[in-house]
Amino acid sequence: MTARRLVLASASPRRKQLLSQIGVSFRVASQNVDEAQLIAESAPDYVQRLATNKAESALRRLATASESVIIAADTVVLCDQEILGKPEDQADAVRMLLQLSAREHHVLTAVAVATRSRHKTILSDSTVIFRSINRREAEQYWHSGEPVGKAGGYAIQGHAAVFVKHLRGSYSGVMGLPLFEAAQLLRDFGIECWQPEMGQ
Predict the structure, then answer these.
(1) What is the Cα–Cα distance from 12 to 66, expressed in whole angstroms?
(2) pLDDT digits (tens, 9 = 90+) for 52-64
(3) Three-state SS for 101?
(4) pTM score, two decimals?
(5) Cα first-last separation, the chain
(6) Cα-based angle 85, 7, 59 (whole degrees, multiple of 5)
(7) Over the chain, what is the mean pLDDT?
(8) 3-188 has which CATH code?
């Protein structure tokens, strides 16, 4: 199985960047799936289901799916057992940051790898502690543009790095694709890291 058969089922530029970092060739096929949480569904179950749904959606839609390996991921921020998704507007983003201020939260990222014949999912759970953040800082951060489209309303690889007092777990997982876990799954599907570019 060659690396050029790998398909990233995501439009996220961060996931594209991270997957490129480990030296595999892939093409992108973004998927739109229903992200509504089911009643009584736990955060780990929720994020793993969404990652799996994205991978399965790509398998259904791709004409070359029979020859493809699909990788998909989903990320949520969990604080006080509340899932903090992507902020709807400035007020929502500021609310999230103030909730995370001087607090510990978890970033759950599920990775799903699938073919027509089988699929596997793995979950990365990272703990992040923010320093104290005041409302003015939260509003300034919103105006940087980074919180838009980010789970929990922040991007650890950007300006929000100054908020991070402690991180235990996967930095790349907090960004959106835990590379250690992703590489393990890909290897299990016959795709090794650091392969020469073979075209898209």
Answers:
(1) 24
(2) 999 999 998 886 7
(3) coil
(4) 0.90
(5) 14
(6) 85
(7) 91
(8) 3.90.950.10
Q: Where are the alpha helices (DSSP H) in the chain?
A: 13-21, 43-61, 90-100, 135-143, 171-175, 179-188
Tokens of 13: 């530029």
117's tokens? 């014949």
Here the tokens at position 132 are 């104290």
Q: What is the chain's length?
A: 200
Check pLDDT > 80 for residue 4: no
Structural tokens at position 109: 């990222």
Q: Is 18 helix (H, G, I), strand (E, B) or coil?
A: helix
Q: Are 168 and 126 in contact (CB under 8 A)?
A: yes
Q: What was the pLDDT predicted at 3?
A: 41
| Token pair 């093409």: residue | 27
Q: Any idea which residue has 């201020």 for tokens?
A: 101
- Which amino acid, residue 75? T
Backbone angles phi, psi at 89, to 5 degrees: -165, -175
Question: If 0-12 CB within 10 Å is exposed, 13-18 middle and 19+ buried, where does residue 133 land?
Answer: buried
For residue 80, which phi and psi values (nearest 5 degrees)?
Answer: 55, 35
Give the residue numbers annotated as catalytic, written as ranges: 74
* Cβ neighbours of 44 (radius 10 Å): 15
Is the confidence at residue 1, as pLDDT, over 90?
Answer: no
Q: Which residues contact 39 (CB under 8 A, 6 or more apart)?
A: none
Q: Where are the domains of the chain?
A: 3-188
pLDDT at 70 over 50: yes
